[in-house]
Design a protein that fits this description.
Layout: E1 7-10, E2 13-16, H1 20-33, E3 37-42, H2 44-51, H3 54-61, E4 65-68, H4 71-79, H5 90-101, E5 107-112, H6 117-128, E6 133-138, H7 147-160, E7 164-168, H8 173-181, E8 189-192, H9 196-200, H10 209-213, H11 217-224, H12 226-248
Parallel strand pairs: 3-4, 3-8, 5-6, 5-7, 7-8
Antiparallel strand pairs: 1-2
Amino acid sequence: MKNSIPRVNVLGVGISAINLRSAGDAITAALESRTKGYICVTGVHGVCEAQTDPAFRDILNQSFLTTPDGMPMVWCGWKEGRKEMDRVYGPDLMLQVFEEGVASGVKHYFYGGREGVADILKAKLEARFPGVKIVGTYCPPFRSLTPEERSALQNEVRQLQPDIIWVGLSTPKQERFMAEYLPLLDTTLMFGVGAAFDFHAGMVPQAPRWIQRAGMEWFYRLTKEPRRLWKRYLINNPLFIGRILLQWTGLRSYSLPTR
């Protein structure tokens, strides 16, 4: 799962110094060489979760790519001189990979989402990208898979042979799933894209682009789903700001594993 793309140290999480174009190039190269790996789409929420969960932090740091999903990750990169960095937003990355994979016949599989969402997403993306190959969908239970369910998933993936499995759970559940199941499944890449399933299926509205670029998407999403997201944003965001200031001022140091 290693590549030559440098990473920026954000509170001990290595965020890949990439933009949407360089991310696409790395993904295309991995697919062509059949290099297995998982891609984490990570912002403030994921970095904050990693502060109290060393195993989850290791998962983020062992990924093929951990993309700068939020503008704060990009700003951290710019501060370290990585001017090439830009936001690699999960929903945008998903559309780019789908568009570029049509000509080469990339096969996709959806894992996650609420009941029926993955099937709606499949229909919408097939209409948007004529000729795209979406070979299967699976709506998992809200718990770990039983041995029987895991075996059934393995058998289905073995038969369908998707090049990419898109995982639409939530952080850190989707990252843990990818790290555990990538070695078990006959696929090349796994992407944890969270809310992208709901966005592209038309279940949840996306923030306007100017709000995203201003780093205020969290506030937009909070107004849409306050019960589910209040803790994530109203607690994690101030904690992140305090911790990153300590890192920038040298009052606290964070190390990255050697890749």
